[in-house]
Specification:
The chain is globular. The N and C termini lie far apart (52 Å). It has two domains: 198 residues, no CATH class; 155 residues. The strands form three sheets. It has a two-stranded antiparallel sheet with strand order 1-2. By secondary structure, it is mainly alpha-helical. It is 59% helix and 4% strand. The protein has 14 helices and six strands. Helix 3 packs antiparallel against helix 6.
């Protein structure tokens, strides 16, 4: 008969248990950003192949690499809101919506915002020097500093030249189809003056060259930003993740729960689904150029679930779900049911998209089945958010918003 050593068999102290949950959260955050970085390295290779040997196949390969790169990053968005520096970085990594005319050509009937003086600037075709927001600005050579500088100097939030959606636009072009993605031709990256195009129009070779340079620069900026975020979540002493795990437990749990609840309810259910459902406008679809929103929405939900359950890839770690079952079993059961419901609803949207009923079709006011599908996801995600907030209150963490003043 085995002898049980009291110290080894006793239940973990609440503080020790909570700290292992925070370390599980940190480990998954690091793994998600490491995977995002690896995927962007593959994207950079595909982009370079497109630049060096442009063809329809090379463009399709770069588009496929972009889609693959969106998967781990979509998981990472569950870290937003609770961790302030991620939202700050998001302005360069994943800004949206996009006034695409700021970066490249758009159709003549493009509805440029009357409040955005640079909505048709077209950095790709711009002269070497121009006035941007009233200040002299050099657009040559088309490198990282130009993209970052133009985005910052324009001082308009939707003037985007960096991040996933700028790259998406450079790969797919403007979405002018009600039933499909953008249709940028590979000749927009052609190496000869005889072949270079801006869509359906012949274009100076300079445009194709600058477009390729801008695409490579945007991918390189993304690589740098993700490398920085992965380091922030490493176990290295002094990193943000290390300080979170070793710091005040209630603060750490607040950051975790507030981020998951806000991403679930306000962002995913609200900004990404409900706003588009109410407007019926393709411009309110996040991955509108590629028509890939059904995948990103699904993976956003999977990210929230991964951080709650402590499971990502091969990782199975101490989790908020386990803490909830230990401290608040009845509420934990409700949360398990809520996560199952939201997962099923987002999977239904993903399945519809893979069958041709993409997000831009589902938001069509004349598509009642699509409306019902999206409303089911909104309801499930909002319920999930409310229950996560209830868990925070049940754990007596105080105001969940990390920026709120403590009583």
């Amino acid at each position: 008969m085995a002898v049980c050593v009291v110290a080894a068999c006793a239940r973990p102290a609440p503080e020790a248990e909570a700290r292992t949950v925070l370390d599980g959260y940190r480990q998954i955050a690091h793994a998600v950003y490491a995977d995002s970085l690896t995927a962007v390295v593959h994207l950079q290779k595909a982009v370079e192949q497109l630049r060096q040997q442009p063809s329809a196949a090379a463009l399709a390969a770069a588009q496929s690499s972009w889609r693959a790169a969106r998967v781990p990053y979509s998981h990472s968005e569950a870290l937003r809101f609770g961790n302030w520096f991620i939202d700050e970085a998001d302005g360069q990594i994943n800004p949206w919506p996009v006034d695409e005319g700021f970066l490249d050509y758009v159709a003549d009937d493009y509805a440029a915002s009357p409040t955005n003086p640079q909505a048709r600037l077209n950095l790709i075709a711009a002269p070497d020097r121009l006035l941007l927001a009233g200040q002299p600005f050099a657009t040559t050579p088309m490198q990282r500093i130009v993209l970052k500088g133009a985005q910052q100097a324009s001082d308009v939030e939707s003037n985007i030249a960096t991040g996933y959606h700028a790259i998406e636009f450079l790969l797919w072009g403007q979405d002018r189809s009600a039933t499909g993605p953008g249709a940028r031709p590979w000749t927009d990256y052609a190496l000869s003056a005889a072949d270079c195009t801006d869509g359906l129009k012949a274009a100076p070779l300079r445009h194709c060259q600058r477009r390729g340079l801008a695409l490579a620069a945007a991918a390189a900026i993304l690589h740098q930003d993700l490398e920085r975020l992965a380091a922030q979540w490493s176990a290295m002493p002094g990193s943000y993740g290390d300080r979170l795990v070793r710091g005040d437990i209630n603060t750490g749990l607040r950051r975790m729960i507030f981020g998951l609840a806000t991403m679930s309810g306000e962002e995913l259910a609200g900004e990404r689904i409900q706003v588009a459902l109410l407007s019926g406008a393709q411009e309110d679809e996040q991955d509108c150029f590629s028509d890939d929103s059904h995948h990103s929405l699904h993976h956003n939900g999977q990210g929230i679930r991964a951080f709650y359950q402590g499971r990502y890839g091969s990782l199975q770690l101490p989790s908020l779900a386990a803490l909830a079952r230990h401290r608040e079993p009845a509420l934990a059961a409700q949360l398990d049911a809520a996560f199952a419901a939201s997962d099923a609803a987002l999977q239904a949207i993903r399945s519809a998209g893979e069958s041709g009923e993409t997000f831009d079709r589902l938001i069509d006011p004349a598509h009642p089945q699509g409306t019902a599908l999206l409303q089911a996801a909104v309801g499930a995600l909002q319920t999930q958010a409310v229950l996560l907030e209830q868990l925070g209150h049940a754990l007596q963490l105080g105001p969940l918003n990390p920026r709120a003043q403590q009583p």
